[in-house]
Structures are given as C-alpha cells and as structure tokens.
Input
Amino acid sequence: MARSHIAWMIQRRLVEGERCSHRFRVELLEQCQRHGALAEGRRAHWIMAQGGALDLVLVNHLIAMYGGCGSISSARQVFEDMQVRNLFSWTAIVAAYAQRGHHGTALQLLRRMLGENVRPDGVTFVVLLGSCGGPEALGTGKIIGECIVREGFLERDVVVGNALLCMYERCGDTGQAVRMFHALPLKNTVSWTSIIRAVAKNDGARALELFHAMLVEGIKVDKVTFTTVLTACSDLGSSRTSWGLKHVTWIHGLIVEAGLIMDEIVGATLTNLYGRCGELEVARKLLLEFLNHHSTNAFHWTGAIEAFSQRGRNREAAALFWRMQLEGVKCDEISLVAFINACWDLKSLKLAHELLKEAGMEFVNTKSANVLIVLYSRCNCLQEARRIFDSMVIRDIVSWNSIISAYVLRDETKEAVELFRQMDLAPNAVTFSVVLDACGVLGDYKTGREIHEQIINTGVKIEDEPEIGTSLVNFYGQCGELGQATQVFRALSSRREPLLWKTLAGQCAQNGHVDKSLKLFCEMQLEGVRPSKAAVIIAIDSSRSPSQGRKIHVLVAERKLDHYDVGVGNSLINMYAKFGHLDEAALVFRLMEKQNVVSWNSLLGCFAQASGGDSCFALFRLMQLQGQVPNSVTFINVLSSCSHRGLLQQAQALFSSMEQDFGVSPTVQHFGCVVDLLGRKGRLDEAEELASEMPVAPSVVLWTAFLGACTNHEDVKRAERAADKVLTMDDECHSGSALAMLSNVRSRSFNVK
Output
C-alpha cells in the first residue's frame, strides 16, 4: 500500500469521522510500519488519542509501528507510559532496539522482562532472533540462544531452533551454526536449507555433501532449498567446470522430478548456472522452454543474459535482452545492468545508456552508474564517465574507485590524485592501491608518502594487506626508493603472493640493481612461493651473463615453471641471443609447445646478429610455411640482416613485397634499412632520393647513416645536404657526430685536391 493511500485512509476514516472498526485501526498502524510511514503513523496516533485511552492491542501496535519506522524514542515513550504490559509489548520494544543495532539496550530490556516474570514464548524468540543480523549482533544473539536453551524450546519447537540456526548464519558464525544444526533434536526442510546456505558461503563442496545427506534422510526439498544449492554450485561451476557441471546436471534432474523446473526463481538460477559452466545452449533452451509454458519476468531473462555476457558472448546476450523487450517483459534495474555489462563497443553502450535514461535510473541507481563509468572509461570516453560520476545522486566507494581507476588507466594520473583528495568517503584497500599507482607513475614521492601515513593513521595493518603492500612496494620502487620498498616488503607478515615478489624484483631491475633482482628470485624459491610468469621473465631479462641465464633456465625447468610457455620461451631466446648463443636460442625455440610472431622475431633477430642473411631468409620462409604471419618487426630483422650482409637485391625484393603481399606498411625503420644498404653499395643518388621522397618523416638516425655513407664514398655535396638535415632536427648527440663526419669528408676531399 502506497503512502498516498495511507494518507487517504487517515483522512476519510479518521479525520472525517467515518465509523471505523478496531481492526481497521490495527491495519492502518501495520501499513505505516510496513512502509516506514512515520509522519502518517504519528498523525494516526494523534487522531486515535483524541478519542480517549487506547486499548492494549493498539498500544502494542503503536510500539511496533514506531520501532519499525526507526523512531525508537517514540516507541520507548509509548512503552514506558503503559500501565499494563503483556508479552507482545515486551517483544515489540526489545525487537525495536535490536533491529536498529542497539543490542546492549535490547539485552537490558530482555533481562528486565524476565525480572518481571514475563516468560517469552516461541514467537517472542523468533522475533528477537530475526532482529539480529551481522557480526555486531552475534553477542546479543548468543545470549538469546542461551535463554532459549534454558527455557527448553529447542526440544519442543523446531521453528525456534531454525530461527537460532539462521541467526548464527546471518551473523557470520558458520562454525556455531554447524554445531547448532547437529544439536537440534528436531530438524525439517528449513533447518537443512539454512545450514546448507551457511556452509555454502565458504565451502560449496561441503554444502553439496549436506544436500546429499538431506536427501538420504528423506527430508522434503522445496524451491528455496534448490535455489540455495544451485547458488552453492555457482563458484564450482566457474572454477571447476567439469566437476561443477556434473552436480548441476544432477540437481537439474531432481528439480524436474520435484516438478519445480518451471518455478521462475529456480529456473532463472539454473539458467544462470549452466551459463557459468559454459553450457550456454542449455541455458538458452531452458529459457525458451519456460517462455513456451509460462509468462516470464525480468528475473528469468536476466539469468540468461548474464550467462552469455559472462562467457564473452555479448552480442547474443544483447539479442536476448531485445527478445525480452519484444515479449513485453518490463526490464528492471538488474536486467538493465546485465545488458550494460554485455555492451561490446561504444555504440551498444550508448544505446544501453539511453534505455537507462528512459527508465529514470541514469543517476539514481548507484550500481548501474558505476557500471557505466567503468565501461565508458574502457571505451576511451573518460569525459562521459566523469559526467556520469559528477551527476550521481549517491556515490559509494565503488563509484570513487571506478572513476579514479579510469583516470589512472588513461594516464591522467594528476587528476586521479586530485579526485582522491576530494573523496568524501573513507578509502578502502582498492582506493589506496590505485592512487599509490598513480603517485608512482607521477614520481610524486611527497603525496605517496602522505598516503602511506594516512593508511597507517586509519588503522590499516599493512602487514596483513598484501594488495596495499604490493602497491607501496611498487610506488617506492618507481620513485627510486628501493630501501623503503624493501622495508615494506620485509614487514609484510605473508609473502605468499607471487605478484609481490615480482613487483620488488622488477623495480630492482629497473633501478639497475640486477643482482638484487636475481637474489629475490632465488629467495622466492627458498620460501616456497611459485613464481609467476612475469617474475620468471624479469629474472631471465636481468641475467648479466650466459652462466646466470643458464642457472635460471635450469631452475625454471626443474620446477616446471612453464619454461616452454610463449612469454618465458621468448625471454629465453632473447637472453641467449643477447650473449650470441645461437644454438641454445634455437633449441628453446624448437622445444616451445607454441610459438607466436614474437618468438619468430626473437629468433630472426638472433640469426641476423650471428649468422647473416641466408639463414635469416631460410627462417623467414619457414615461418611462412608454418602459417605464422610476419609483422613489421619481422621485416626490420630480415632487412637489417640484408643490410649487414650487403644483400641489396634480396632486400629490395623483400621491401617491395611488404605492403603488396603481407599488408605491412613500411615505417621509417624499414626505409632506413634500405637507405643504409644503398649507401653501403655506393648508390648514393638512389639512397638520397628514397630518403627525400619516402611517405613517412625521416629520422635523424636515417640521415646520420646516409651521411656516414657519403663520408665513406667522399661525396661532399651529398654529405653537406645530409648534415643540414641532421642539424635541423635539433638532436645534440647526432648534430655533433654529423659535424665531425662533415669535417672529415671535407678534409679528405681537400687533401685529395
């Protein structure tokens, strides 16, 4: 019932003096309580009081109404003014305090009630336990539980036992919930469903075992049980697909046997779960079967939309959303958010955004606005993401984290730090991590240090927060403060996260402390932490000698650390190539399970440096025969090899085929290889013409190389033109060498004359 109708009831039946029954007055107070209509409830109370003293039933409902509407002081005043109280009066006032988190006062009132010899019944305990939710209410719930045991309710009232079990589950004490379940002499469907739900939060496999035990005991399974068990399977469906799918299929069969397959909540949950297991066609079939037999609502469609979206099949998810519209199903905020998450490009995102506007939920609904911020930032529309953030009615911590992260990802780190300073909410671990990353990119040691102090002052124990600890290590490393980075690293109580080790090792390497980086890699092994691929690559790239590189290679192979993974394999090839060990680089390449274009380019570069053009061309042809498409770097490697070996004809043929046969547009590096080769061959006129007329801007390196060729062939005029090109590019390093070469060629020419 809407508030406007409550106001109408008060006006017509109370103010205008129409006769109204006692039942009507009770119903009016119940409606005010249900809808939180405090102002209307106060008005009804005042009007009722004008007719004289209220009876006990109405006064009890007044206490419940004020408590339900959040006015505990008014509820207490009504309670204390009562001359006569019954069990309902006490239950209402204790529940009012407990529901609002005033558990100390609730317990005082409960003790006062018992002291006045008012004995609680089952309804009282159920109401009181129902008002306890969250870890902060656990103490109150335990005291009520002790009272229940003392009064002997567990042995005779299964409803009270279930309420106590549910209280422990809501308060997060799963261990006590399990103990209570086993202690219950009477158990029914609600008991089993409650314990399955409690255990499922931390252990889906154990929840499924309990469900199986429930079936063995012959306990009837209802739709709430099935929904709870399916939810318990959700994590198993995504992390252990085949194992999870086996159980989902089994439960599906039980649902069919129970005749609940067409229940909208059970059906939607089952549909979504099949999607999580990757069985999208089964999910689609379930939805269409439901559609053929019943009218559907947004909840059922949302399960299928989310299933397709989570597996990356966004276009099909969007198609389901539009089918939902065609079926006349009105979308709600959850289905709209699911559709927004399914957007695959800016066009589809804008369309979803328009639907959100039409539904009047653009800025009012925090969750949908947060999703829009993230997706617009991914589509490089940072300005639109900021507009949405600035227009939000209510911002939560996710809103702030999303917009700050958006600026960091777009390299606008100054604005990210400024937004952090403007926050009107307490930052969490994600916030601190993101803004520390921004300070690291900026090299803003002062601000980052202030944030570190803020983290300490807020009571966050950095030693127990590996996410914040990793960000601090990264920040100090980026600012060149390796001592402080190491200090934070050593202070962390748990260093089991490979990312933490990789971060410190990477910063050591970037700051020139290669030996420290390698030492960390070895220490990581001793502490039993399995290195990530990134950490292995850092260690390989940090090798200063072939012996160091081989030691890491052996360690990687012995520990089976994906030594033939593409990324790790490519690093090993580059490492051996760096030290001129062509055979070992080739061996790693051959042993790799899969090679990508980077692998081929690494080996090509190795051959180009060591053995020259013929080997490079042979490898280049083999690359094509094995179906690997060359890219720009591939041609640079082969052309460089041709340049060093003087293979002009082969280089020209390869250069001509780049764009025509492979669709690779030549860059300044490719032109530079050909110009250099023409210059080495003394064909300076062709080299100069190519450098002057190439469609991309020549680099200072290209003109300097051409100047060197002119010097070698003592072509003074061309050398002067090349030197002019170098000098106009304002490059001090190359300008000096250009003047030296020009002076040299002039001197040699003068001596000849």
